[in-house]
C-alpha cells in the first residue's frame, strides 16, 4: 500500500516552545489514521503543517510521494479545530460557497449539498441562516462543507467534540462511509472509543514527540496484560494458585460465574484450563486486551 502522507523529522518551534520535535508519520492511502495526544501535545500543529497553514522549521511532508504544493489544498478537505461559518449566510449557500472554493461548479456543489443535507437530517434547515442553527447542527454543516468536493484526503481536527452521542455516531458512520468510498482520513481526537471503532492506525504524540505508533490491533496486542475472562457454569469459590491471580468473580444470571484473572509471566492459558477443568464446566474464555483509553493514560502518565 502506498503512503498518501509521509512526514519525516518534522520540527516546529514557537518562541521558546518546541511544538513538534522530529515527528515521523506515514499514512497509507485508503486508511483512517488517528492522531492522539494530551492537550498541547502538538496535534493541531501537525495538522496545520499538512494543510500548509504553517510551515515546519525543518523536516518534510510528502503527499503522494511529492513535497506539498500550494495546489494540493484543493485535494484536501480540512475541518479546523476552531469552527467558523458566516452567520448570516443560508445553510445551503454556505455549503455551495465552500464547495466552489475547492473548485466545484455551483451546479455540482448544489446537487451534492442537497444530498448531504438529506443524509444529515438537515433538509428543513437548508434555507435557514447559520445563526439559527444549534452548535451541533452548525458543526454538521461545516463537516459537509469540508467533504462536499470529495477530496481524496480528509483531515478533521477533533470532529466529535460538541456532538451528542447520536450525532457523534452518525458522524462516525459518515467517516467510515467516506473511507469506504476511497478517501484517506486523518483525524485528531480525545474520544478513544472512536479510535477503536474507526482507526486503522494511530500516532500518539506526547510533549511534541511520537511516543506510540502503529496499527490499533497491534498496539492493543503489544500492551496486553495477560488478562483473561473465563466463563464457567457453576458458582466459583475463589481458587488462587500462584500461576494466576483473580481480579474479580461476577455471578452471571444463569447461576455461573465470570472470572477475570491475570496470568503470571510465561504461564499459558492451557495451565489454567487444566486446573479449573476437574471442578468447573468451562463455557469459554477470551483474552482481554487493554482499551485505547487505558493505553493512552498508561503511556502519557507512565502509570499502569
Ligand atoms: N501560534 C502559536 N504560537 C505560540 N505557541 C503555539 C502556537 N500554536 C500552538 N502553540 C503551542 O504549541 C503547543 C502545541 O499546540 P497544539 O495546538 O498543536 O496542541 P494539540 O495537541 O492540538 O492540543 P489540544 O488537544 O489541546 O487541541 C502548545 O503548547 C501551544 O501552546
Low-pLDDT windows of residues? none
Bound molecules: adenosine-5'-triphosphate
Radius of gyration: 24 Å
- Look at the structure and give the mean pLDDT: 92
Strand content: 25-35%
Shape: globular
Query: Structural class, from secondary structure content?
Result: alpha/beta
Total discrete domains: 2
Oligomer: single chain
CATH superfamily placement of the largest domain: P-loop containing nucleotide triphosphate hydrolases
Distance between the termini: 35 Å
CATH class of the largest domain: Alpha Beta
Enumerate the strands of the largest sheet in spatial order, edge to edge or round the barrel. Answer: 6-7-8-3-9-10
Q: Characterize the largest beta sheet: strand count, sense, and whether it forms a barrel.
A: 6 strands, mixed
Give me the count of strands: 14
How large is the count of helical segments? Answer: 9
Amino acid at each position: 500500500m502506498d503512503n498518501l502522507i509521509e512526514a519525516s523529522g518534522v520540527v516546529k518551534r514557537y518562541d521558546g516552545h518546541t511544538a513538534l520535535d522530529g515527528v515521523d508519520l506515514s499514512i497509507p492511502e485508503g486508511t483512517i489514521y488517528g492522531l492522539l495526544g494530551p492537550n498541547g501535545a502538538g496535534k493541531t500543529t501537525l495538522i496545520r503543517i499538512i494543510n500548509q497553514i504553517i510551515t515546519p522549521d525543518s523536516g518534510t511532508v510528502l503527499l503522494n510521494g511529492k513535497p506539498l504544493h500550494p495546489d494540493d489544498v484543493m485535494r484536501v478537505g480540512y475541518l479546523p479545530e476552531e469552527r467558523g461559518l458566516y452567520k448570516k449566510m443560508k445553510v445551503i449557500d454556505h455549503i455551495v460557497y465552500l464547495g466552489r472554493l475547492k473548485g466545484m461548479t455551483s451546479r455540482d456543489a448544489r446537487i451534492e449539498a442537497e444530498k448531504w443535507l438529506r443524509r444529515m437530517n438537515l433538509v428543513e434547515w437548508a434555507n435557514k441562516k447559520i445563526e439559527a442553527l444549534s452548535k451541533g447542527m452548525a458543526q454538521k454543516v461545516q463537516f459537509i462543507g469540508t467533504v462536499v468536493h470529495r477530496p481524496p484526503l480528509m483531515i478533521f481536527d477533533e470532529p466529535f467534540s460538541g456532538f451528542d452521542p447520536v450525532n457523534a455516531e452518525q458522524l462516525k458512520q459518515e467517516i467510515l462511509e467516506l473511507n469506504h468510498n476511497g478517501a484517506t482520513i486523518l483525524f485528531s481526537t480525545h474520544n478513544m472509543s472512536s479510535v477503536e471503532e474507526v482507526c486503522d492506525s494511530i500516532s500518539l504524540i506526547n510533549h511534541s514527540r511520537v511516543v506510540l505508533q502503529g496499527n490499533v490491533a497491534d498496539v492493543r496486542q503489544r500492551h496486553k496484560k495477560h488478562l483473561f475472562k473465563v466463563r464457567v457454569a457453576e458458582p466459583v469459590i475463589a481458587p488462587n494458585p500462584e500461576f494466576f491471580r483473580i481480579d474479580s468473580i461476577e455471578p452471571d444470571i444463569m447461576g455461573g460465574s465470570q472470572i477475570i484473572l491475570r496470568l503470571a509471566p510465561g504461564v499459558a492459558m492451557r495451565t489454567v484450563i487444566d486446573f479449573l477443568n476437574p471442578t468447573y464446566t468451562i463455557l469459554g474464555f477470551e483474552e482481554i486486551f487493554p482499551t485505547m483509553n487505558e493505553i493512552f493514560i498508561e503511556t502519557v502518565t507512565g502509570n499502569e
